[in-house]
Input
Amino acid sequence: MLVLGIETSCDDTSAALVEDRTVLSNLVASQDALHADYGGVVPELAARRHLETVQTVIERALELGDRQLDEIDVVAVTRGPGLVGSLLVGLSAAQGLALALDRPLYGVNHLEGHVLSPLVEGQDDFPLLSVLVSGGHTAMYLVEDVGVYRELSRTRDDSAGEAFDKGAKMLDLGWPGGKVMDELGSRGDPTALRFPRPRVRDDSLAFSFSGLKTSLWDFLHSDDSKGHSLEDVCASYQEAIVDCLLKRVGEAVERFAPASVAVAGGVSANSRLRRRLTEELSQRGMTPLFPPLSLCTDNAAMIAYAAVRRMENGLPGEQLEAVSRLPLGSVQ
Ligand code: KG4
Ligand code: ZN
Output
């Protein structure tokens, strides 16, 4: 089965071909440069750029995957969550294609795409503890099977990606700054500075990063900040984020005894998180799964792959089709 995936939920325009469970092509047109001056995604600009780019990205994904339009069996598209203007561009493109090709249209939850992305190259081993750490979300799920998710916790304030991006912004590292902080931090000493490890004081497994961000701001405006290299500041700040994540993952592993642990989302590309979690879980005889780097940040391959995995299990897609009868007040 050949699935064309389309993902435009935020600021990346992406199209991918996935055949059965194999990724044939995965093209991402990043809008980072467009939004960098604003220090964050500007929804109107994002939607307009998706509109300009989506068709070319789909054509290139077909070319790179060496397939023709009429070979596509299913069109899969991100239904949400995301920026509505951005989502609508992908949805309209997908609807148009599905109609023109007379193929089914399969709506996918963006979060499910991320959660299943470590399985593209990894083995299924359920129940799986999924740690979703992206720019928009930070949460843990217990995955009993494809399509069976139980949310264990989420962040009370910022996401892990925001903690990276806002910290990087304070350090003038550009936007989004997670990757740059990772690179600089890998050349610094993570014990040079001790940033607080914010804790939510209950047993909810929830994350919290806003206090950490404030402590970096306080530090940068104190006399203390002189005499520390940028690399050491990045390494120490990153270490605090990683510690917060590892603590909660450790607690969740204790409590739910999952068969495996998988990390997904943009922050799962972080080299320090990968190394420390791998070390920590090895003490429990476990090896965490991470997506390949190309599938960490937003991409359409994870959307097409999620559609494949759901269809294999006989699960329906998210409802997308225009319906002729729709009583006022009903939610469909
Ligand atoms: O999954 P994603 O593309 O977007 C959402 O769905 O939110 O994640 C983007 C986030 C950004 O905050 C970015 O700074 C972060 O992932 N990120 C990283 C790294 N690469 C991307 N954070 C830390 N280390 C990295 N290597
Ligand atoms: Zn995402």
About this structure: The CA atoms of residues 129 and 253 lie 8 Å apart. The chain has ten helices and nine strands. The chain has two domains: 2-115+295-331, 126-290. Residues 10, 134-136, 161, 164-165, 176-179, 182, 265-267, 269-270, 297-298 surround KG4 (ligand 1) (CB under 6 Å).
